[in-house]
Amino acid sequence: MTVAVAACQVSPVLGDPQANRCIVAAAVGDAANAGAKVVVLPELVSSGYVFSGRAEAARSAEPVDGPTIQLWCSLARTHHLVLVGGFCELGRDDALYNSAVIVDHTGLRAVYRKTHMWDRERLIFTPGDAPPPVVDTEIGRISTMICYDLEFPEWVRIPALAGAQLLAAPVNWPTYPRRDDQRPLEVVRAQADASVNRMAVVACDRTGVERKVGWVGGSVVIDADGWVLAGGNATAEAQTVTAEVDLDLALDKRVGGLSDIHSDRRPELYERVTR
Amino acid sequence: MTVAVAACQVSPVLGDPQANRCIVAAAVGDAANAGAKVVVLPELVSSGYVFSGRAEAARSAEPVDGPTIQLWCSLARTHHLVLVGGFCELGRDDALYNSAVIVDHTGLRAVYRKTHMWDRERLIFTPGDAPPPVVDTEIGRISTMICYDLEFPEWVRIPALAGAQLLAAPVNWPTYPRRDDQRPLEVVRAQADASVNRMAVVACDRTGVERKVGWVGGSVVIDADGWVLAGGNATAEAQTVTAEVDLDLALDKRVGGLSDIHSDRRPELYERVTR
Residue ranges of the CN hydrolase domain (chains A, B) (predicted)? Predict the structure, then answer.
């Protein structure tokens, strides 16, 4: 089945969840009107990213039943689509988590907490330790993980082996010294995540300089073979990147003749990886 | 230390090890004269690839102390360089292996047997089950694996975690339906292998149509960040792709602020990958 997948590369306002709800509602409405059935939002789009420390992050944190996720559920119901986005979660344990949700027209389907902490996130957030969820939706099985998680192929394997057809990843890719004549490596790594698993990947980046930190702005939709269908170039613009994605490709892991990218694995030889 | 690394994308003759020794001697000599200190050859460059079956492959197979590897050791000694290449190995057990060697001026340093069998290889070769070797050479720690092995990130992790600075991969990348407007996915995956490990990667592809099978011809030298330094585009031409590579980058796994691409792994959570 071919599905229109959109990544809403917006510019959230640091420390203003109310403003960010409005930004998200507008972007999701536009994407839905353009036909999107899966809409992905950036990491921490409820709060912004470049916190001075834990105390500032806590002021933008919300429980998973707070107003941000309530709104997102309402948007998914109103527009009848699957919505995946990142938010600053206040846990019942009062810890802060860099989290993502998968919601659909029926409501909240899964919460995921980022597991691999980038740079100073480790000073603010508690890392998750649960595997990425795989949610059976109307349009296929969808998983999520967040930004730096994508750089750990062992982690990407987990939802892929569990049958995910689309990995929808909220990201905030900070600018980093780069070669302008080549595709951003954040995108290259996401292409490989797709390709070695035959699983479609959509990554939704952000834009808008925040405390002098800029972003790649490389939101991208990638098919199950690893080809870029839309986006995937650095940009400073807010934009919605959309492509039609054939999620059925991910149901067949054959990659050439007798080869099957999952059953050709030799897991009994990989134990060193878990040490 | 910056080192000149060359991939000799030659066109071996199917079933003619003697001819292939000549082809390799000429290409390695040229690369050495141009200053290369590490020279990489394609997969099965001793024999060609598209065998009708096991019996035909056996006729081109040689033990590891046969004339092909003897020649390669001689070339490494004469030119004082590290040579990594693929050959059709006849084991002491009479099994055939799709193997690679690492040799330097002191002689044979390591033999590796391809572990992940592409397509019909499984009908001809016995898969290896030993991890990729990591060899301490004059110019740094070098590992090898072969072609399809590169598509299993768990496998690439093993030499990277063991300290390899350069992964030298003989490959035969058969042509596959592709988008001409994007970098070949074989190259994209190799870039990600480098990037998620901060380990330089050189892949040496072949050229020359063999029994109607063509090749990407995408030989590439990639730095420890994942950027393509040379090659990496599809071509039908025989060529030697060369770049100066800073192998010291691989000694530092930090990728931004407090982030370290290896120590940020959560191996205790990856056990599902080995099942």
Answer: 3-247
